[in-house]
Amino acid sequence: MSLPQPVPPSWKDLGKSSNDLLGKDFPIHGTTLEVKTATPSNVAFKVFGSQDPKANLINGDIEAKYTDKAHGLVFTQGWTTANVLRTQVEAENHLAKGLKFDLQASLLPDVGKKTALFTTTYKQPGLHTRAFLDLFKGPTVTTDTVIGRDGFLLGAEASYNVTEGKVTRYATAVGFSAPDYAVTLHGLGNLSTFAASYYHRVNPDVEAGAKAIYDTKATTQGVSLEVGAKVYTDSAAFVKAKINNAGILGLAYTQALRPGVKASFGVAIDTKKLNEISPAGPAHKVRALQIFIWYIY
Q1: Is residue 184 pLDDT above 60, yes or no?
Q2: Is the pLDDT at 259 greater than 50, yes or no?
């Protein structure tokens, strides 16, 4: 008798463990601040701000979310410093168990630009499928499906332009997921780009992972490779390190300052230029930025 099958991850979450290990908690592209608060009446607020070090601009976003767990409804309203109004309505388990409807709309009043994306998600043991309808672009229908059994995963994605009557994008992926490790292979961009990733929880305090990408349309031949690790120094702090085949070394440190308050610090170093000297000083690139995330309840 086969064991009950869990709900597999969605298409976008295939290889998520490796992507998070190599991509998250490295605040080397700007400084960000995020503040979250929640009320006893199921209303949550979030304020997010980020500074672009190149343009020296600060972008912000304020958001309010109301969750009605009893009826499976979530309402979200946001407003950005670019004067974009965002609205999202989510409804889950209404017509069938595991079925979710999601409408995301935005409006830029200054120029009258608007977007609307309607999403349907259906989850069952061994199956996770989604369909997206972009109402003002195309319109375009995008669907993706992941099926899983005994840890093995098989997924595919395709986009269809209704007006032009043709498939505009397709991709596929296979993988295997276990409690302590995961391996994923992707064929993206109409099978023009191939990616392989793995994640391994070596022990409760150490995680390791790597990702390789080969783009058949790239002007420079070869495979891009990145490898990284995460080590918990104690229950309130961890360090991360990664390096790619271009010689860029990333280092990060995250510390929980108190319950609900976390700070991260990161640096990126071009190891190929450590010994190069220019009239203005060392030629290697070093960036040290920080991120604060606050959760207030």
Answers
A1: yes
A2: yes
- What's the gap between Cα 50 and its chain centre? 17
* 152 C-beta neighbours (distance < 10 Å), count: 12
The C-alpha atoms of residue 175 and residue 182 are separated, in whole angstroms, by 7
Long-range Cβ contact pairs of 280-288 (< 8 A, separation 24 or more): 287/28, 287/53, 288/28
Q: What is the per-residue pLDDT across 59-90, written as a single tens digit (0 to 9) for each?
A: 899 999 999 999 999 999 999 999 999 999 99
**Phi and psi dihedrals of 195, rounded to 5?**
-135, 140
Amino acid residing at 240? K
pLDDT single digits (tens) 208-217: 999 999 999 8
d(CA 46, CA 62): 6
Of 219 and 291, more confident: 219
What would the DSSP string read from start to end of 15-82? Answer: THHHHHHHHTT---S-EEEEEEEE-TTSEEEEEEEEEETTTTEEEEEEEEEEEETTTTEEEEEEEETT
Of the candidates 64, 58, 65, the one whose C-alpha atom is nearest the C-alpha of residue 81 is 58
CA gap 101, 83 in Å, rounded? 26
For residue range 225-240, list pLDDT tens digits in order.
999 999 999 999 999 9
In DSSP terms, which residues pair with 66 in a beta bridge? 43, 75
Residue 289 confidence (pLDDT) above 80: no
Indicate the SS3 state at residue 170.
Answer: strand
pTM (2 d.p.): 0.85
Nearest to 99 by CA among 78, 124, 79: 124
Alpha carbons 104 and 119: distance in angstroms, whole number: 8
Residues 40-67, mean pLDDT to the nearest whole number: 88
What gap in Å lies between CA 175 and CA 199, rounded to an integer?
11
Tell me the sheet residues that pair with 57: 52
* C-alpha to C-alpha distance for 12 and 1, rounded to whole angstroms: 31
